[in-house]
């Protein structure tokens, strides 16, 4: 029968495979929910899953295949920036809708590109006064050497200096670094109040293990989440770290409870879910609502309807900003529990609108 | 020797014929797929031109591919530069050649050969990828540069516009054919024979009056220039350039394509590149985690069953055939 | 003195604690043939290395056509017209005999002899398409001489060209060199006395890095000292 | 007693040896003559195990070594001094000799026999020199010395006089039979230098195109015309 | 004082890791001339051995004993099944070992699941070194690395095995000719190199990420260390590790780490150019 074809470009192999698995599960969950409730306008949702291998070449090949061979109605997925821009380079040429779920550095601006994750200012702007008040007045940043941490650092610096705080050092480490000793030595001599790590992916594991062994006492902000903590980190090393995220499993609301319950029922009792996954889940639901409302699957119709609808997501109510196709998402600071896996909500900043001076679609 | 040349030309002609009739049976998407594979095929041939004849393995060849790609991107994305596409291609080729010339001069005239060269070029690849990631003000960082326009230019009143699938396929296929043919005729003649001699015994070759380092350098630079050309073409077709196009993974893959296709045959690597990439994407759509395992096994098997690459199947079949005929 | 091709003056060289050559003089004129003999380890190969510029002497000087060639890149030396046959036969094993000769010709600034003639000269015409790596030892020696001839040298240096050859072939080689004598200068290092005798030329005898004797071969052959340290008595 | 029985061998499709029968008694020196490319080197390689025989057998004493790996043959007592010497260039002279004793692991005490230095005093003098920097003749002596370190019962010498100064060639001519007698070794001597063979060998064989075409005592070979017949073009 | 000592210890840690991984490679690549792209996977296997032993309730130390054994087993199988047939075909070796590295990575992933594996260090916390406090585990790592180095040097210089292996490398046919079982010599050497890499993996497991793909992070650097120092000598390996590790640690503190990495690699290229035979050529023989 006639179905709504959703193409998924997911890193199933390669460096981002752990996060890819959770993201894929979230899409599967959303599709199952939709299909159980009469699909999209009566049409069942059909997922076309492709592994982009976490590479540029793979992402391009797979996006082309999804569009030309599978003839999908929309493409969703990808985690890190190269996958995203590779996919975007195909979708923007083909004028095909592309929903991107991951936290990203911003800068991408395209009519057919919808971001359901936060950009740096959404996470950082509301958070910095809280940091200044609760954690300290000086920050040392150590990060992986690529665009997202660089943009985050800019956002952090701007917002923090407004509160009178100061960034006293920032070091960017190449991917694949196996020894962070020099950074810890710097922390010892600079004595910042707070350490903010944006070392990501596999290197985050190395970084955190070594951070603990150097016995550093300062509070640590690190972009971790439940999935990563559980699947990648040795038990307990994340305990006490802070992280800004638009979604936490600990959020106490009925939608989230139901989300987690059905996720675990489908994929395993112990399974964790994170902000990226939730943003993917939200993306598919937002698309469904918009398509339903537009009564059409044509990209332009869906796009037109998209800003007019609201979705009751696990993180709270969200909607897409018509001016830049970014999502108004929530911002929470989480604090990792002693088990080093789950988080408690340290502070809720409510919904934050994405402000993008560079972008107007 | 003569018979071998004839065989090569025969296979080349067969491939060319296939490439000509292919558009009759393929839709636009399938054309783009083969077009991109052909570009990587040319990239593989460029590595083979150096590796196959000198016996020195370059483990950072993707660096030149990436350099070509980035230069192309920077030139065509800058609206202030006229004749973007043409200038981009020239710049990409020249840039890759220049970098190769500097590094090559340093290494070849410093007496560095063999595994040393391999590992030093490996490091060069690592540096290039890291530079592309961290120098984000120019390179766009890890997300790369997006929105590179398709190749378009006017030569002598003819307007070339490669935004459509068929023209771009034809353009790429003819470039690849010309390049492979050119590389082949260079490497089978005097140039190639002397390179083989240098590979056998460099001191002896020098004592006969051959400037071995210079010859190696020129070969390397030419090989890098072609890699740069491939990079420039690819980024225009893909519309973006990203750091992993100059990375270790691609460097390794291209080595594998050459080895699978048959080192020193130039044509084999092109076929190897197409075959492996298509197999990779097909298998990965079918079962993602199977691919790496399968690929690994394929390499091990190829080494033992087809040590001279897939192109040697032809020679073997022929040998078998001859053997039969003689037996009868 | 315009016909002086190569002039070595007071050459000395040290390897660590070993004074391998000391105070050696040698003048090679155009189209002259001369031989160097001497016990194993006397420094003959080393001296050849100095003469070809491969080794820089620690004292003294070597001039080829008036230029100091020490330390020049090998290919430049070859292009100046110095050809050399190494002591261990070194050919290009993965090229055919014919291609070996071609490569040699291509290296030359002005090759004269066609490959066919070279093949005949070194009696390898029947094996032109054989890979050089598959030749028997003696055949490799011949091929290497052929390669040296191919570059049309002004000076040909031979390090034990007949090692591994049968007596007949040794003599044939000597005859060939005598025939070529009119074309260029030759310096040969050899242990095979019949070969040296056949060439019957100016001979330098080295011993422990120094000149022991020099002069026409028939004088050398009968020299008591040379017989003691080198030729032996029977 | 070293024997080959109808040994044949070749490179790829090219047959080089066609049924060679050879037998050398302990203490005996057999000279092997033949033109370039006759297959002398190949025969020695087949005996030493560097090249597989395509037919026939290689026997040392009562051991059939036809299918034994090269190192087993060395340990059984076959020592090979190849054409081109095959010394280990980057090791010192002493290390080369030490490695030579590996063949005698099962038989000797693992030390370098002293009389080696008696035969070749230069080796003691240059003990610590890197072998690759020895002169050609010195390397040849090292190669023979190393072979003797393995306490062999059969010794294969491939053109040992190549590159050796005349008076030492003479002493090799005296040394080879002496070594054979003193140590009871069966020696096969491949040579182009007729004087040496005729002086050192007890018996001479002539090879042509992979066959043994003539056999005789050195005295018989003193006849010039016979020699011309067998060896000249 | 604190600063100097910490810098020194940081450098020593990195040097130790590089040296251990490089030690195995110095044998297979440096001595045997086998370009083994699966060398990184020996490190991975060692790290997984520690993880596995810990996950079934064993102690870290038991795991660390298992690590070289696991490396050796994998190395031995690899040598027996593949490498030994390819000693004369270096290019094929590159290809085959790359294939093996893929198989091993994927095999580990299929059997142990996606994602990083937790490994707990045998001791937590820091050690008071009078001048400074330093993570205790790192001190252990440095000590074990030094002990291993001394062990290997003794093994190679005091036993006849070291001589045999060099003989075999220089001239295989001749080595057979003097009675050396070249197959066995190669197999043992290769296995030994794999075992050391496995040990290295076990040692870094508590310090860095444990993942089927972790080997890549060590492979390129290890090759580099071997080349910079000079192929085929232990002294060279030490010199290369000190050069690369020391410079990285010191520069990391001064300038941006990415730049530091690039500078170190460039400096290494310059070093190779100036001393093509290695920083330490010959001196350790
Ligand atoms: N690089 C070196 N380092 C140390 N000693 C060396 C080096 N090269 C040569 N020698 C020594 O210098 C001396 C002369 O060697 P050379 O090879 O010139 O002798 P030769 O006269 O050619 O002998 P042969 O006739 O045996 O070939 C020898 O004692 C040799 O060991
Ligand atoms: N590696 C090889 N591959 C192919 N053919 C070979 C190889 N080595 C030798 N041959 C051939 O085998 C034949 C016999 O060679 P061999 O070396 O045994 O001769 P020889 O009697 O020792 O000659 P010489 O006196 O020149 O040393 C020759 O025709 C040679 O071309
Ligand atoms: Mg000499
Ligand atoms: Mg021979």
Structure, explained:
The complex is a heteropentamer of chains A (361), B (328), C (234), D (233) and E (285). Chain A is α/β, with parallel strands linked by helices. Chain A has helices at 17-36, 56-69, 81-94, 120-124, 127-134, 147-162, 181-190, 201-213, 226-232, 254-267, 275-294, 299-305, and strands spanning 3-10, 44-51, 74-77, 98-100, 113-115, 138-144, 166-173, 194-198, 220-221, 242-245, 311-313, 316-320, 327-336, 343-352. Helices cover 35% and strands 27% of the residues of chain C. In chain C, strands 6-7-8-3-9-10 form a six-stranded mixed β-sheet, sandwiched between helices. A four-stranded antiparallel β-sheet of chain C has the order 2-1-4-5, covered by helices on one side. In chain C, helix 4 packs across helix 5 and helix 6 runs parallel beside helix 7 (193-199). The mean pLDDT of chain C is 87. A six-stranded mixed β-sheet of chain D has the order 6-7-8-3-9-10, sandwiched between helices. In chain D, strands 2-1-4-5 form a four-stranded antiparallel β-sheet, covered by helices on one side. In chain D, strand 7, helix 7 and strand 8 form a beta-alpha-beta unit. Chain E has helices spanning 2-31, 39-55, 60-81, 90-112, 136-158, 160-170, 172-177, 182-204, 216-229, 234-254, 257-274, and strands spanning 126-128, 133-135. In chain E, strands 1-2 form a two-stranded antiparallel sheet. Classes of the chains: A alpha/beta (361), B mainly alpha (328), C alpha/beta (234), D alpha/beta (233), E mainly alpha (285). Chain B binds chain E through residues 57, 106-107, 110-112, 115-116, 118-120, 122-124, 126-127, 130-131, 133-134, 248, 252, 255-256, 259-260, 263, 289, 292-293, 295-300, 302-304, 307, and chain E through 29, 33, 35, 37, 82, 85-86, 89, 91-92, 94-96, 98-103, 105-107, 109-110, 216, 220, 223-224, 227, 231, 256, 258-259, 261-262, 265-266, 268-269, 272-274, 276. The structure holds adenosine-5'-triphosphate (ATP) (2 copies) and magnesium ion (2 copies). One magnesium ion binds next to helix 1 of chain C.
User: What's the overall geometry of chain D?
Assistant: globular
SS-based class of chain E: mainly alpha
Largest beta sheet: strand ordering of chain E: 1-2
The residue fraction in helices of chain E comes out at: over 70%
Unreliable segments of chain D (pLDDT under 50, ≥5 consecutive)?
Answer: none
Structural class of chain D: alpha/beta
**Chain oligomer state:** heteropentamer
The biggest sheet of chain E, with number of strands, parallel, antiparallel or mixed sense and barrel status, is:
2 strands, antiparallel
Number of domains of chain E: 1
Provide mean pLDDT of chain D, rounded: 87
Strand order of the largest sheet of chain D: 6-7-8-3-9-10
Question: Secondary-structure element sequence of chain E?
Answer: HHHHEEHHHHHHH
The total of beta strands of chain E comes to 2
Query: Gyration radius of chain E, to the nearest Å?
Result: 19 Å
The share of residues in extended strands of chain E comes to under 5%
Kindly state the number of beta strands of chain D. 10
Tally of contiguous helical segments of chain D:
10
The rough form of chain E would be described as globular
């Amino acid at each position: 029968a006639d179905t709504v074809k959703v193409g998924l470009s997911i890193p199933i192999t390669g460096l981002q495979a752990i996060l890819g698995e959770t993201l894929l599960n979230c899409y599967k969950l959303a599709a199952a929910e939709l299909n159980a409730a009469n699909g999209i306008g009566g049409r069942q949702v059909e997922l076309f899953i492709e592994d982009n291998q976490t590479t540029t070449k793979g992402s391009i090949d797979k996006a082309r295949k999804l569009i030309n061979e599978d003839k999908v109605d929309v493409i969703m997925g990808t985690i890190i920036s190269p996958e995203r821009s590779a996919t975007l380079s195909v979708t923007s040429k083909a004028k095909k809708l592309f929903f991107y779920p991951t936290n990203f550095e911003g800068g991408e601006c395209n009519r057919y590109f919808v971001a359901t994750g936060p950009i740096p200012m959404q996470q950082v702007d509301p958070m910095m006064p809280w940091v200044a008040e609760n954690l300290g007045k000086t920050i040392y940043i150590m990060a992986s050497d690529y665009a997202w941490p660089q943009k985050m650092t800019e956002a952090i610096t701007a917002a923090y200096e407004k509160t009178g705080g100061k960034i006293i050092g920032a070091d960017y480490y190449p991917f694949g670094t196996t020894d962070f000793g020099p950074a810890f030595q710097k922390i010892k001599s600079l004595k910042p109040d707070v350490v903010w790590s944006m070392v990501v992916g596999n290197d985050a594991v190395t970084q955190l293990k070594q951070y603990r062994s150097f016995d550093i006492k300062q509070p640590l902000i690190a972009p971790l989440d439940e999935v990563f903590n559980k699947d990648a980190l040795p038990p307990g090393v994340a305990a006490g770290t802070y992280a800004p995220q638009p979604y936490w499993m600990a959020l106490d609301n009925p939608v989230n409870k139901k989300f987690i319950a059905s996720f675990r029922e489908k994929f395993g009792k112990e399974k964790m879910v994170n902000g990226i996954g939730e943003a993917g889940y939200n993306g598919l639901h937002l698309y469904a609502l918009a398509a339903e409302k537009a009564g059409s699957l044509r990209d332009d119709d869906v796009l037109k309807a998209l800003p007019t609808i609201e979705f009751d997501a696990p993180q709270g109510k969200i909607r897409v900003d018509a001016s830049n196709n970014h999502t108004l998402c929530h911002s929470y600071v989480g604090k990792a529990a002693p088990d080093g896996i789950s988080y408690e909500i340290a502070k809720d900043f409510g919904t934050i609108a994405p402000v993008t001076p560079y972008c107007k679609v | 020797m003569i018979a071998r040349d004839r065989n090569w030309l025969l296979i080349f002609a067969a491939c060319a014929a296939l490439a000509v009739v292919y558009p009759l049976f393929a839709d636009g998407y399938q054309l783009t797929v083969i077009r991109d594979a052909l570009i990587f095929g040319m990239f593989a041939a460029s590595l083979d031109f150096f590796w196959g004849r000198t016996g020195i393995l370059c483990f950072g060849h993707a660096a030149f591919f990436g350099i070509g790609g980035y230069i192309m991107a920077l030139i065509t994305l800058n609206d202030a530069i006229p004749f973007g596409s043409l200038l981009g291609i020239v710049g990409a080729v020249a840039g890759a050649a220049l970098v190769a010339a500097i590094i090559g001069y340093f290494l070849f005239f410093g007496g560095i050969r063999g595994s040393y060269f391999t590992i030093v070029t490996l490091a060069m690849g690592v540096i290039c990828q890291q530079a592309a990631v961290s120098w984000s003000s120019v390179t766009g960082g890890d997300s790369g540069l997006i929105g590179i326009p398709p190749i378009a230019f006017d030569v002598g009143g003819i307007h070339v516009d490669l935004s459509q699938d068929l023209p771009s396929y034809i353009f790429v296929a003819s470039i690849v054919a010309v390049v492979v043919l050119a590389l082949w005729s260079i490497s089978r003649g005097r140039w190639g024979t002397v390179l083989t001699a240098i590979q056998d015994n460099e001191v002896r070759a020098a004592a006969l009056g051959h400037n071995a380092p210079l010859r190696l350098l020129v070969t390397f630079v030419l090989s890098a220039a072609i890699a740069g050309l491939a990079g420039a073409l690819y980024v225009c077709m893909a519309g973006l350039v990203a750091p992993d196009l100059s990375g270790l993974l691609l460097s390794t893959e291209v080595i594998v394509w050459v080895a699978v296709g048959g080192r020193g045959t130039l044509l084999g690597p092109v076929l190897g590149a197409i075959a492996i990439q298509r197999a990779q994407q097909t298998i990965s759509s079918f079962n993602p985690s199977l691919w790496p395992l399968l690929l690994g096994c394929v390499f091990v098997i190829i080494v033992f069953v087809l040590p001279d690459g897939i192109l040697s199947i032809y020679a073997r079949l022929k040998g078998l055939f001859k053997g039969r005929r003689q037996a009868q | 003195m315009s016909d002086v091709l190569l002039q070595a003056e007071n050459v000395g060289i040290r390897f660590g604690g070993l004074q391998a050559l000391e105070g050696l003089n040698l003048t090679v004129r155009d189209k002259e043939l001369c031989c160097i003999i001497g016990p194993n380890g006397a420094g003959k190969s080393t001296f050849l290395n100095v003469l070809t510029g491969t080794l820089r002497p620690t004292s003294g000087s070597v001039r080829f056509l008036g230029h100091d060639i020490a330390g020049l890149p090998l290919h430049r030396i070859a292009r100046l017209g110095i050809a050399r046959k190494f002591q261990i036969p070194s050919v290009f094993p993965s090229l055919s005999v014919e291609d070996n000769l071609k490569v040699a010709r291509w290296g030359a600034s002005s090759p004269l002899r066609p490959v066919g003639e070279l093949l005949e000269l070194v009696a390898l015409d029947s094996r032109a398409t054989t890979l050089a790596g598959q030749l028997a030892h003696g055949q490799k020696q011949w091929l290497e001489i052929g390669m040296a001839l191919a570059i049309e040298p002004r000076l040909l240096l031979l390090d034990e060209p007949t090692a591994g050859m049968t007596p007949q072939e040794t003599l044939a080689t000597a005859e060939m060199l005598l025939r070529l004598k009119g074309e260029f200068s030759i310096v040969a290092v050899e242990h095979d006395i019949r070969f040296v005798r056949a060439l019957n030329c100016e001979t330098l005898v080295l011993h422990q890095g120094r000149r022991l004797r020099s002069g026409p071969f028939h004088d050398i052959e009968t020299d008591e000292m040379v017989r003691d340290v080198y030729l032996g008595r029977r | 007693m070293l024997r080959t029985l109808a040994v044949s061998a070749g490179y790829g499709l090219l047959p080089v040896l066609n049924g060679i029968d050879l037998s050398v008694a302990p203490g005996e020196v057999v000279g092997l003559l033949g033109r370039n490319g006759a297959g002398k080197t190949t025969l020695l390689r087949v005996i030493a195990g560097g090249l597989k025989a395509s037919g026939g057998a290689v026997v040392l004493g009562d051991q059939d070594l036809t299918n034994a790996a090269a190192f087993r043959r060395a340990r059984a007592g076959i020592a090979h001094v190849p054409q081109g010497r095959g010394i280990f260039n980057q090791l010192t002279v002493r290390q080369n000799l030490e490695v030579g004793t590996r063949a005698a692991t099962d038989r000797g005490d693992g030390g370098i026999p002293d009389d080696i230095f008696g035969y070749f005093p230069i080796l003691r003098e240059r003990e610590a020199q890197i072998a690759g920097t020895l002169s050609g003749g010195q390397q040849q002596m090292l190669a023979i010395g190393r072979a003797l370190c393995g306490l062999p019962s059969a010794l294969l010498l491939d053109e040992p006089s190549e590159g050796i100064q005349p008076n030492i060639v003479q002493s090799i001519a005296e040394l080879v039979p002496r070594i054979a007698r003193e140590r009871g070794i069966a020696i096969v001597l491949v040579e182009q230098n007729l004087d040496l063979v005729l002086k050192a060998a007890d018996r001479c064989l002539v090879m042509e195109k992979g066959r043994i075409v003539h056999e005789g005592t050195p005295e018989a070979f003193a006849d010039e015309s016979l020699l011309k017949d067998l060896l000249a073009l | 004082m604190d600063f100097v000592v910490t810098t020194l210890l940081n450098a020593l840690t990195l040097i130790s890791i590089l040296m251990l991984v490089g030690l195995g490679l110095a044998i297979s690549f440096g001595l045997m001339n086998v370009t083994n792209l699966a060398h990184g996977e020996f490190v991975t296997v060692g790290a997984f051995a520690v993880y596995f032993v810990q996950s079934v309730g064993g102690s870290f130390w038991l795991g660390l004993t298992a690590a070289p054994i696991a490396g050796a087993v994998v190395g031995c199988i690899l040598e027996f099944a593949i490498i030994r047939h390819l000693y004369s075909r270096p290019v094929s070796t590159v290809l085959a070992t790359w294939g093996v590295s893929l198989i091993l990575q994927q095999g580990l992933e299929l059997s142990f699941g996606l994602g990083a594996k937790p490994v707990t260090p045998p001791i937590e916390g820091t050690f008071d070194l009078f001048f400074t406090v330093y993570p205790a585990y790192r001190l252990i790592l440095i000590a074990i690395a030094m002990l291993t180095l001394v062990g290997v040097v003794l093994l190679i210089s005091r036993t006849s095995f070291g001589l045999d292996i060099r003989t075999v490398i220089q001239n295989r046919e001749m080595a057979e000719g003097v009675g050396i079982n070249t197959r066995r010599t190669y197999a043992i050497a290769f296995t030994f190199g794999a075992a050391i890499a496995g040990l290295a993996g076990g040692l870094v497991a508590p310090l860095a990420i444990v993942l089927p793909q972790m080997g890549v992070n060590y492979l390129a650097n290890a090759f580099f260390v071997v080349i910079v120092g000079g192929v085929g000598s232990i002294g060279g390996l030490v010199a290369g590790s000190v050069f690369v590790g020391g410079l990285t640690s010191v520069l990391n503190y001064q300038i941006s780490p990415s730049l530091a990495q690039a500078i170190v690699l460039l400096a290494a290229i310059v070093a190779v150019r100036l001393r093509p035979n290695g920083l330490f050529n010959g001196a350790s023989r």
